Amino acid sequence: MRLQDKIAIITGGGRGIGRAVALGFAGQGADVVLAARTPAEIEQVAAEVEALGRRALPVRCDVTEEDHVKSMVGLTLDHFGRIDVLVNNAGAGNMRPVWGIPKKSFEHVLAVNLVGTFLCTKHVWRPMRDAGGGSIINVSSLGGMRGYPLLTAYCASKWGQIGFTVACAEEGKADNIRVNAIAPGKADTAFRAQIREDKSRMLKAEDHVGVCLFLASDESRYITGHVIPIEWFGPQAEDQAA
Asked: What is the DSSP letter of 37?
């Protein structure tokens, strides 16, 4: 088991990529904390994790609210005693021309994707350090490496998330905390449901699990500060943004 008895927090753990990663981690021996705003979804995933023989703790958490994040970390420590892995997967986005984005909408995308990543990282850092180190995985996007029309808020937040990843990786070397990011392309998730697209040429949620398993495991113990793109490819593959 690649993650035997490790404790992993997964934000946005109730569906999509978060759910797939949670089940993948549990299948490799991890116990998981599922953090999201929708209790029914994370409770369902918790039941699926437990059916695999691992422990699960569903926690209602809005990653943009520092009190929520502090409480979620505290509950994790009370329940499991330590934190080995954090997957910052909670995300938000909108598709609008830059001239038509309300200020609140732009700020909301930054709050979830960038500030939420910061708050979760901030509050797991010391317990992770005190336990001897760990792995933080930020779910970014190709939109954090390239620019795309109608995705200005999303791209701005994801570019910021990648900069945050690289800076934290340098800071984490002294504390044995590795910080990496994955950068998926187009994925069949709720965010893209508003667009009519050929889903056969998109990543599936399960396509993100393998690289997250690697980054969470001791196999990647000397890898930090890297951004790993994940792109669907095949006949007539197109430019992609998650």
From this structure: S
The domain locations on the chain are 7-230
The pLDDT of 109-113, averaged and rounded, is 98
- For the entire predicted model, the pTM comes to 0.92
The domain over range 7-230 is classified in CATH as 1.20.120.530: no
Instruction: For residue range 210-241, list pLDDT tens digits in order.
Output: 999 999 999 999 999 999 998 876 655 455 55
The answer to whether 165 and 180 have CB atoms below 8 angstroms apart is: yes
Q: How far apart are the first and last CA of the chain?
A: 30
Task: Report the catalytic residues.
Answer: 154
How far apart are the C-alpha atoms of 60 and 70, rounded to whole Å?
Answer: 12
C-alpha 133 chain-centroid distance: 19
CA distance 167 to 115: 15
